[in-house]
Structures are given as C-alpha cells and as structure tokens.
Give the backbone structure.
Amino acid sequence: MKSLLFFTGLCLISLQAVAQTHIVQGKVTRGEKPVEGVAVYAVESGEGTATDENGRYSLQLKEGTYKLVFSYGNQKSLEVNLDQDKTLNVDLANVEEVLDEVFLSSVRVTAKSPITYSNLSNEEIEDRNLGQDIPVLMNYMPNVVTTSDAGAGVGYTGIRVRGSGPTSTNVTINGIPYNDAESLGTFWVNLGDFASSVENLQLQRGVGTSTNGAGAFGASINILTDGYSEEANAEIANSYGSFNTHKHTVKFSSGLIDDHWEFAGRASQIKSDGYIDRASSDLKSYYLQGTYVDEKTLVKAITFGGSETTYQAWNGIDSTRLANDRTYNPAGVYTDEEGKAKFYENQTDNYKQDHYQLLWNQKYNSKWSSNLAFHYTYGRGYYEEYEEDATLNEFGLENFQANGEEVSTSDLVGTKWLDNDFYGTTFGLNYQDADWDVNFGGAWNRYIGDHFGEVIYTRFARNNDPYEPYYENVGRKTDFNLYGKATYAISDKLAGYLDMQVRTIDYETEGVLSEGNEFLVNDSFTFFNPKAGLTYALNDQNQFYFSYARANREPRRSDYENGDPEHEELNDYELGWRLNTTGVQLNTNLYYMDYQNQLVLTGGIDDVGSFIRENSGNSYRLGLEIDAIIRLSEKVVLRPNLALSQNKNIDFVATWDGELVDFGNTDISFSPSIVGGNRISYLPVNGLELSLLSKYVGEQYMSNIEAETSKLDAYFVNDFNVQYTWRNAPLFKEVVFTGLVNNIFGEEYVSNGYYYTFDVENPDISTGLQTLDGAGYYPQATTNFLAGITLKF
C-alpha cells in the first residue's frame, strides 16, 4: 500500500499544466534594504507568495493582466500585463508601515541576525487548521517533536524542540509572555482554535534573542495575532472528522472605518471524543480586536480567551495495556459495591482564561519608533478527581466511628483549584538607519497564584462546611528585565550583533500543599544574559553566521516542591549557513548547548501528569540541523528537514533503589538523536494543492539512566493534506475545501511517556501502571481524518 501511494505521488508530480503561464519575479526593498515577509498576491486569481530574506519573490500566473498587491502593514498595488516572463522590483520606502511587527522587536529576528529560526506563515497554518492545537500544526518544523494526551491533537498537547520540553520554550503573544509564571509551562489547551487568529509565528531554536518572560532554554515561539484589514470581510469555517471531532469558527472584520478604525473578532468551539477512551475535549474561545491606525500610529486593544473542559488522560498506560488495549484510560476508575470497575464521569480538568492587551506603536520619523504594551490575564479553574479509599486526614477530614470501629478512609471527590492574576507592561524604543538597528526595552510583570483544594463529596465520612479548603497556598512572582541590542553594518558584507539583558526575579510562597506540608519559598535571582554574533554575506546567495548566547533560568514551582533546586545556566554556540537561490533555500546550522545544573526530566510524573525534574550537573546538546525549500518546478515543492544530535548528561548521579549511583555519561531523557521531516507539495491546477507530510523521530529514553524499559521506539508517520480554493464562487469571495488524513499508514506509535527510577511494588490501577517495569505510555492515534469547508465573504 505504501509503495502504491508513493508511486501515485510520483506520477502526479510528473504531470504538467497545458495552459500558457509566465513568471513575474523581482525584489522588494525599502530604500536599498531588502524586506522579508512582504505578502505578494494577484487580486484576480488570489495566488500569492511572500518575499524571502533577500526580499525576492516569484509568482507563476496564466497569461493576462493582473493587479499585484504588495502588503506589509500598508499596501502598494501595481498593474502588470503578463504576456511574457517579467521582472518587477518594488520600493516600499514611502508606503509600507511595519507597525504590527514592531510589537515583536524584542523577541523576533530576521535573516540579518545570527539566530537560528524558522517561520510559519498564516497560509501554512490555514492548510491544516482543522481544530488541532498549535503544537500539532508546528509538528513538521525542524527538530520539533509533538505529542497529545488524547492521542488526536486536540486537548492537552505538548511540544519539544531540540529535546527541550515546554518549560524550556518561551512563548510570547504580541511580545507579551504567555508561559505560566510559576510552572513555566505553556497550556495550549487554553488557546482553543487560536491558530485561526494568528498572522504568523516564528520558532527560534536555542537561546534566541532577548525575550520577555521566562528565559528560553531550548526554543522561543513568538506569535503575532491578526493584523488589521483595510477591507470588510467575514468567514465561516466548519470541520468534522474522526473521534467525533468538530470545529466551528466565525470571524469578521469591519475593515477600516474612516480610514482609521477597524474592529474584528472570532468565536470558536472545538469538541472531540479523543482517540483514548473518554479523553474528550470541549473548547470554547473568542478573540476581539479594536484598532486605530494613521500614518505613524497604531493602537490595538485586544482581548482573547476561552474555557476548556477535558476528561483527564494524563495517567498513561503500562506496556501490557499498550500491547493489548492501547486506548485504555485508567483515569477515574473505582470499584463499586459489587466489586466491578467503573469510571467516574466527571474526572475532568476545567479552566477559564481571559487575556487583555493594549498595544501602542508610534513612529516618530524614518529612524525612530517605540512600542508600549499593558496586559492582564485572569485565569481560574480546577480539576476534579474521584479518590478511592482516601485517607481522611490528608483531606482535612476527621476519622469517624462505624460499628464500634474507627474508620480513617473513605471514597470521596476532591477538586484542586488555581486562581491566578498576571499583569504588567512591556516597552521598547527602536532606532534604524543605513548602518544601525538598535533596540532598548524591557518588561515588568507580576503574578499571583492562589492554590487550594476542596472536598465536594464523601461516600461515608462527614464532610466539612461547603467550599472550606483543606489546603491553601499562594505564590507570588515579580519578573523585571531591561535589554539593549544592536545590529551594526561593519561593512557591506559583515554585520555585528550585540544583545545585553539584565533580569531579576523574586518568588515567594506561603501556606500548605495538598499533602498538608508547609510550603514556604522566598528566593531571588539576578541574571545577566549577554549575546553576540556576526553575520557575513559572501554574496547574494550565501550567508554565514556565528553567535554566542548566555542564558540563566530560575526553577519552577514544582522543582521547589520536589527538593532544593539550583538555577540553570546555559552557553549556546550557533554556526550557520544560509543559501538562497531561485530554486533552493537551504538553512544549515551546527549548535552546541553547554548546560550547568540543567533541570532535566527524571521520567517521573506527579499527580496531574506534569513531569518531575532534577538538576543533572553538567550536560550538553550537540547537533546539526538542515532544512530546505526546493522548488523542483512551479508545481512541485519539497520542504525537507533533518536534525542529528547528541544529548548527554556528564557523570550523571541519581538515586536507584534508595542509593546514589553514578551512571556515567548518559543520554538526556526525551532527546532523540534523529528527528526528520518532509513536505512534498504538488499544485496540479490553479487553486488545488496536494501535500504529503512525513515525520521521523528516532528512539529516545524516558529516563536519564538509559534503562531499556524506559526506551520509546522510533516512529515514522505520514499525513496527507489536500486543499482546494474556489475563488470568485457565487455569493462568496472564496470557498476553501480542506482535507487531512493523519497517519495514513496506520502506524501504532508512542510519542511520550514516563518512567520511575524505582520498582513499582504495589501497582495501582489509578496510575495506569499494572506491571513492574515502571514505565507509562501515551499512545497516539492510528489512521484518522479531518475535513473542513471555509466560506469567505
């Protein structure tokens, strides 16, 4: 079957269109500087592209007259009669305004910077935006591994870059931190269908540039939300698929009113039963935006958020279940009075989060601009669990007498809550001329998190007063940073980069944890994070860069709960080569990430499925990353990427069977040495695109001791994506049909799991572990599909 599909793909690739077509190409500049990321499209056909890092673009169109639009903030339109191949260079010096992008000046880079990065455009997101979370849409980016608790990409999903997990990936939205300040993690489940409001996304691998929020130790994800629209528009999108997955989205924009005001919004609902038993998701979300724009001012007031209810699927299963019943979910299991196993129907995670952002960008003249933002996030929610034979004293309940005997346990239902407030400001000042690009800025952010638990039902025992917490703990964190960075054109070919950041953190807690133990933290850090690099342009096609970056990062809340952690330190070295020709864009880089006291995953998880970490002493990641865009013809494009790496703990010492053991040099957990991907896109006719997407992830250990029972097997997964755009359809501007078949060859694979470095003497059905190997697994879905239709007005 696989061979048949590949041969079919090769036959399709060999087809040629019969209509007479011509190529219009050129370079977009601002003065003498090339501009990357300019959207170029033909109004009549809707076909478009974007300029590369050298400002170059190329479009193949049928013979005829077209209105070409060059959009980058504001727009410039040109008429072209395409009766032969033509070169059309465009200067946006007097018309373009990059006001939206200035919001990201502290966190985003271009090809002039010695930083390793990849971009994901709105068009690429739309190709597969059928309800799956943002990490899943990023799956085919270089050195990325993604996973889903429910197995189908909806609900709780995660991403690792270069082997570093979500807590090592710094996420910003419009330059504002999104990571949870205490856990340092990113919960994409709270951003249901957020991809429908994303203009573009940049993934920086390694330390990256100075950021607001927690320091990046593996990657940074910088998200820019929708820009303003000059024309009124609306769209309705619906998709359906396997596991009763369905998404409904409504979007609108008023267009510019009186040339200055625009109002836009989105409302979405996503539901899925999940591949894993009962791993259901119910996600509701919204996005509202008001914009004021004039020649030099852009002000945006944005609010977005939503609610999620997901049935817990974070326990995983053991190897026996994986072999015989891979969709089994142990969450919520209990035994009734007749001794039969049943599942508590409300074993759920429930959370609501609302974000408010006020963004102001001001251009003073051709050289100076500034940005200022204020933000506030209000989060609140809980997870509910059935506890069988729970010890009453652990839940603040008293023992009781029954039939003359003291009873100390009871079945009960408890909830654990987190209410939090996160607010602050980010600010920056930018100066640009022919030789200099300089940014000064910083941020001040404050977090207050209220953790508490309640018992809402007891089977036998007498409960306390309603809503009386049996534990309460408050965490407070203040994060402040200042940075200055500059790129200077040393010569026509050589540019230097310098980036200095000072960051201070104050973190304190008070109260008790759910186990009844007092949890008091009062810790402060001051970090100096310097970065420097050189970029050398050999010619228009070849560019080389080298950078060094120093990063420091504080422990997260659970690290304090599990011990006395040290902060992490990292020295990151990047050496890269970028090739850009008409037919090939190639990015190659070597990296060496030298860690001190890296907090690595032990393999174990806590009671809510979060991974437990510990300082590993010295460790490193050494790797080679290659990604490319290869245009075999105007109809066939390949986008391969490959990452080869070595990820090692040095003289790793850990507790085994109650004793400290020196395991020597070992592989860092969850760090495969080979990660590869590819996308083959074929455009047989105007408006139709067929893509085969492939992902290979090599074997990896779930522990840092290289235990064979902690090894996850390598896997190779292929998806098939089809999209047809019907332009100028009756009643609509466009009708877009999208289909996605995931895992077309039905691979039974596991992308995530956990491992305890001790024997499981008393297997517990509630954890999913029923054998003595100490390993748990999160199986991913076999062949499944999603199909959608989008109506654009």
Summary: The chain is about 5% helix and 55% strand. The chain has two domains: 13-96, 223-787.
